[in-house]
C-alpha cells in the first residue's frame, strides 16, 4: 500500500499550517496526493481481504500542486494564507529534502479502485480538508 499524505485528524502539519509555520515554497509546483484516514483504512481492509500480493496507490482522485492545496488547507483550518518563502531560502532550511517536495508528481488510484472495488468517501482533498480542524 502506497498512501498519499494522510489527513483527517490534527497533526504536526495541520498545526503548523494553522500557525502559519508551513510556508509556500518557491512557485509551489510540487504535486501531492492526499488520503483521508478513514478512506485509507477502508482501502487497507479491502486489500487484506484480496487475493495475492499487489501494490496499490491509496490516494484521492486529485493530485495537486502545493500552490493549490496549501492555501485551501489554511482556509479550512481558519488560518491566514501561508507565508511565501523563496526556493533558495527553502533549500537553506530543508537541504536536499526540498527536491522531493518541489519535484513530487502525485499518484493515481485507478488500480485500487478497479481491483479492490474501493471508492474513497472524500474523492478530493478539497472536500476532505473541510472535515478537519485544529
Name the CATH architecture. 3-Layer(aba) Sandwich
Query: Which range does the strand content fall in?
Result: 5-15%
Return the average pLDDT rounded to an integer.
Answer: 93
Task: Sketch the topology as an H/E string, one letter per element.
Answer: EEHEEEHEEHEHHHH
Biggest sheet: strands side by side, in what order?
Answer: 1-6
User: Could you tell me the number of beta strands?
Assistant: 8
Domain module tally: 1
- Rounded to the nearest angstrom, the radius of gyration is 16 Å
- Helix amount: 40-55%
Q: How many H/I helices?
A: 7
Molecular structure report:
This protein starts with a strand and ends in a 6-residue tail after the last helix. The chain has one domain: 3-Layer(aba) Sandwich (Rossmann fold). It is 43% helix and 13% strand. The chain has helices at 12-18, 37-49, 66-76, 87-94, 97-103, 110-116, 125-128; strands at residues 2-3, 5-7, 24-25, 31-32, 34-36, 57-58, 64-65, 84-85. The protein is of the alpha/beta class and 134 residues long.
Amino acid at each position: 500500500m502506497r498512501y498519499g499524505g494522510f489527513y483527517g485528524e490534527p497533526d504536526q502539519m495541520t498545526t503548523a499550517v494553522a500557525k502559519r509555520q508551513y510556508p509556500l515554497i518557491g512557485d509551489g509546483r510540487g504535486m501531492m496526493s492526499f488520503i483521508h484516514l478513514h478512506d485509507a483504512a477502508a482501502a487497507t481492509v479491502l486489500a487484506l481481504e484480496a487475493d495475492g500480493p499487489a501494490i496499490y496507490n491509496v490516494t484521492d482522485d486529485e493530485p495537486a500542486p502545493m500552490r493549490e492545496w496549501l492555501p485551501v488547507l489554511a482556509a479550512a483550518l481558519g488560518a491566514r494564507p501561508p507565508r511565501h518563502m523563496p526556493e533558495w531560502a527553502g533549500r537553506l532550511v530543508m537541504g536536499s529534502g526540498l527536491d522531493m517536495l518541489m519535484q513530487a508528481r502525485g499518484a493515481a488510484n485507478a488500480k485500487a479502485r478497479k481491483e479492490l472495488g474501493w471508492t474513497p468517501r472524500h474523492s478530493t482533498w478539497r472536500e476532505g480538508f473541510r472535515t478537519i480542524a485544529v
